[in-house]
Specification:
Structural class: alpha+beta
Order of helices and strands: HEEEEEEEHHHHHHHHHHHH
Strand order of the largest sheet: 1-2-3-6-7
Distance between the termini: 22 Å
Strand content: 5-15%
Radius of gyration: 28 Å
Number of strands: 7
Number of helices: 13
Shape: elongated
Helix content: 55-70%
């Protein structure tokens, strides 16, 4: 089984039977940042299935809410198949339009925090460890505060200023408090207005404690993000497996005597397998898979309706016309599955671009250039999928958005390119 994003060690994990997803629909009141029509904060009731109880939810019905900005409240529709993931600290649920958006967000947080790799050289965790080392050095210098030369004192204050500036602008409370404590060190004096090394050292040790607390929280956060990622990726794999069964069924149908000559001897087997497949397709709730599942269910039923008259010897309808309509329905299903295959490849490319565009590593342009080469090849290959006969053609719009994103990259406009690539994902 091919995973989308997760590392080999995560891939090797096995989901225990007792943790299997319950795809039964339930009603839940979800705390979010959405508001009511008059701007009041309220709990909204959703029909959902739970990937992780009370943590990762997929909506099974549409819901109208409002978003709030500084001056107005805007109507907003949450479509069926959206994903909510609970923020374990804020106890609010973050909203994602589809399951891949949720995966990218979790991966971004996980990677920025430093993940589970202790040797990682980029991200928040190694940066905080470097800050702790600098603070430890400051504490040692201040022990011998009175013996410091002016140059050494200036160096110590420069380190302190850099750390304070780094921390104060952050979102996390512990880092902000550490920054504020360090920012006040210059002003710390005893009752006689003298610089007191003990007071200064005490302040730096408080900042040290705040950063240590943040590091501990990151460990807690990454453990939860890791479990979130595993649940989300396993659900995407499950959906892809459902469509692999759909592909196999459609291919067998197109080779069968039932679909080619109208021989109805295999009718009962066809109906039995169709019924099993429909049950699996109805368990696919998350966008963007839900669209493909809904269309596959329609086309399966179309095939039945077209083939049913062949069981009667008195039908007045054209046998060849009925068989062609049934085969067309199966062909549409196969095209939908090919588009899902393309979506899987695109999401890998999209994620690679997101990580590189946000990276501060050297030679960024060369690495982005390698990704864009793969994207151009992907766009050309996508042109071989002809989905104009589907009720919801997507390929022309997807190709157009990829080209616009690639054009933005040639101007080194990473943000505009990223926005276009987000729209590519939304178009599948």
């Amino acid at each position: 089984m091919t995973r989308l994003f997760v590392s080999d060690n995560v891939q090797k994990r096995e989901t225990k039977k007792e943790n299997a997803v319950n795809h039964a629909e339930i009603a839940r009141h979800i705390p979010t940042k959405f508001v009511g029509r008059s701007g009041e904060r309220r709990l909204f009731k959703f029909s959902v299935v739970e990937l992780i109880p009370n943590t990762i939810l997929i909506t099974t019905g549409d819901r109208n809410v409002h978003t709030r900005n500084e001056t107005e409240y805007t109507p907003f529709r949450i479509p069926r198949g959206s994903v909510f993931v609970r923020n374990q600290r804020l106890l609010l649920f973050a909203f994602y339009t589809d399951i891949f958006s949720a995966i990218r967000s979790r991966m971004h947080i996980f990677k920025n925090a430093g993940g589970r790799r202790t040797d990682q050289k980029q991200g928040e965790l190694p940066e905080l460890r470097l800050s702790l080392s600098s603070l430890h050095l400051l504490i040692e210098m201040i022990v011998d505060y009175c013996a410091l030369s002016k140059e050494e004192l200036r160096e110590a204050m420069s380190i302190l200023d850099d750390l304070a500036a780094e921390m104060v602008g952050k979102v996390d409370d512990d880092k902000v408090m550490a920054g504020e404590v360090l920012d006040r060190v210059h002003k710390l004096e005893d009752s006689r207005g003298r610089k007191n090394p003990l007071i200064t050292r005490d302040a730096i040790e408080r900042a040290y404690a705040h950063i240590e607390k943040r590091i501990a929280n990151i460990g807690w956060i990454t453990r939860h993000i890791d479990s979130h990622l595993l649940a989300l990726v396993e659900e995407t794999d499950r959906c892809f497996e459902v469509f692999e069964k759909v592909r196999a069924f459609a291919e067998l149908c197109l080779k069968s005597r039932l679909f080619n000559t109208g021989n109805t001897a295999g009718w009962s087997v066809f109906m039995e397998e169709k019924k099993k497949l429909e049950a699996e397709l109805k368990s696919v709730h998350a966008l963007p898979f839900r669209h493909a599942a809904a269309h596959a269910l329609i086309d399966l039923q179309v095939a039945v309706v077209r083939l049913e008259p062949l069981r009667s010897t008195q039908t007045l309808l054209s046998k060849q016309a009925l068989l062609k309509a049934a085969r067309d329905a199966m062909e549409r299903i196969l095209i939908s599955v090919r588009i899902l295959d393309a979506m899987r490849k695109w999401e890998r490319l999209h994620f690679r671009y997101k990580m590189e565009a946000a990276s501060k590593k050297p030679h960024k342009r060369e690495r982005v250039r390698a990704i864009t080469s793969d994207m151009r090849e992907f766009e050309r290959d996508l042109g071989e999928i002809h989905d104009e006969h589907l009720s919801r053609p997507a390929v022309p719009e997807i190709r157009a958005r990829i080209k616009l994103g690639l054009a933005a990259i040639t101007k080194h406009d990473w943000k505009t390119a990223g926005d276009w690539f987000d729209q590519v994902s939304a178009a599948f």
